[in-house]
Amino acid sequence: GDAGGGSGGSSPFYVDSDGLQRQIDELASFSDSPVPSVTRVLYSDKDVQARRYIKGIMNQLGLSIREDAVGNIFGRWEGSEAGLGAVATGSHVDAIPFSGKYDGVVGVLGALEAISMLKRSGFQPKRSLEVIMFTSEEPTRFGISCLGSRLMAGSEELARSLKETVDNQNVSFFDAADSAGYKMHPEELHNVFLKKDDYFAFVELHIEQGPILEKEGIKIGVVTAIAAPASIKVEFEGNGGHAGAVLMPARNDAGLAAAELALAVEKHVLESGSIDTVGTVGILQLHPGAINSIPSKSHVEIDVRDIDEKRRNNVIEKVHQSAIEISKNRGVLLSEFKIINQDPPALSDKSVISAMEFAAKQLNLEYKLMISRAYHDSLFMARISPMGMIFIPCYKGYSHKPEEYASPEDMANGVKVLALAMARLSLQ
Ligand code: HGY
Ligand code: MN
Ligand code: MN
Ligand code: MN
């Protein structure tokens, strides 16, 4: 346990840090990559094991559990006025390849520990409290981020596009869902949509995934806004051919087109005029991928973000122009330039911010108002509920890599701020 002593805890308001760490380590063992990395992709066997594990904890806490068509999991603690909009919290447990064991997980297991702590302390909720495990926040398998929360927020476009979505093994979304136990008729996707007043507030606990809190020695981040993310898929096609026999003037190399586009992304981002614009080419695949064969096809995936939506959209426009220019200059076909998502930023709600500030003050924890450069399910929950996020420091800001780490003390602080903020919102 934390300052409150061991698991017995002198004050009822203690966090079972040892238990939480054990759960984090146990969950991390459901992974398709070697320790210390974690890989847990939507609807994989490891994902199914993780889901079973989370539902087991919800069960132990006496929460009533429901799952929607795509596998968003809801654990609810009925309040005395159960008809009122509930106070929800939650995050994700899917993990991109070779990543860490805290991204998302702290906001699910930590939220369940917050519920456990409130129960131990004898708290009686007025508005029901609910922990949500969003079915897939990472874009890994089907290329769309925040799949579960985007649907909950009512994305008709996503409901439609999922009907023809396949992963890179050509497995359809519905077959993959079915293999994980979520057999659904395409029309059921609409049942995932939530109504505006389902939730009175939504608060997500998450590691900062940046270095600021640790560097400034501040214990808690109170998020005021989430940056605007976008992702683009690009394909180039050339004639390919023999790496020895085709002379340079005769080539139209799809691989070099991709390489030039990646550098163009960096150039357009850097010339945006703001340090807040970021751009990444995290996927660049060449076909056929043989040392002595000129790439006849290339597949590029681009991630562009900014806290200013217009500035971000301006970069996307320039990247598109560059892709067209590169295809002309190199005589390759720009066979695809597809914007997968181009989301607006989200602002946290004043009332949720004040609940988080109240909690941090009550706990005597110094906090900092800040923006989230990473996106989260909160970005979409903000479309149907007043939203807020609580950040805790993480080691050197590392995330999306195995060195990701949050200390038991920092996690305990986050859990306590979450518990107090939810309790306050529940009684409003
Ligand atoms: O990429 C992100 O911002 C999130 O951590 N998936
Ligand atoms: Mn992530
Ligand atoms: Mn995350
Ligand atoms: Mn995220």
UniProtKB/TrEMBL annotation:
Q: Where's it found, cell-wise?
A: Endoplasmic reticulum
Q: Is Plastid one of the keywords? A: no
* CDD domains, per database record: M20_bAS (cd03884)
Task: Write out the pathway annotation from the protein's UniProt entry.
Answer: Nitrogen metabolism; (S)-allantoin degradation; glyoxylate from (S)-ureidoglycolate: step 1/1
* Cofactor(s) the protein needs: Ni(2+); Mn(2+); Co(2+)
Q: Which reactions fall under this protein's catalytic activity?
A: (S)-ureidoglycolate + H2O + 2 H(+) = glyoxylate + 2 NH4(+) + CO2
Q: Tell me which InterPro entries the record gives.
A: Amidase_Cbmase (IPR010158), Bact_exopeptidase_dim_dom (IPR036264), Peptidase_M20 (IPR002933)
Q: Does the keyword Zinc-finger apply?
A: no
Q: Which UniProt keywords apply?
A: Endoplasmic reticulum, Hydrolase, Manganese, Metal-binding, Purine metabolism, Signal
Q: What does this protein do?
A: Involved in the catabolism of purine nucleotides. The sequential activity of AAH, UGLYAH and UAH allows a complete purine breakdown without the intermediate generation of urea.
Oligomeric state and interaction partners are given as: Homodimer.
What protein name does the entry list? Ureidoglycolate hydrolase
* Species name: Oryza glaberrima
List the gene name.
LOC127757613
